Amino acid sequence: xxxxxxxxxxxxxxxxxxxxxxxxxxxxxxxxxxxxxxxxxxxxxxxxxxxxxxxxxxxxxxxxxxxxxxxxxxxxxxxxxxxxxxxxxxxxxx
Length: 94
Fold this sequence. Notes:
By secondary structure, this protein is mainly beta. It has strands spanning 9-13, 24-31, 39-44, 50-56, 62-66.
């Protein structure tokens, strides 16, 4: 079955590593699986966008990915409008 990304980790903490950008927050995710390295993320608290992603391997090696010039588009509100199929009874609970 499909597992949610957040279900892959058993715990998280806030490491002492300093963010590259002032005002960002550092988060370390510890995976449930032993063969997957911990993940260190630098997140912009205002936008919740990930600006840096680091895999920390047991041999001390690190793979680092940095994201710059992140652009997002606004979603049309119609994406969030529920349109029930025809011949379906909708029951609204209050």
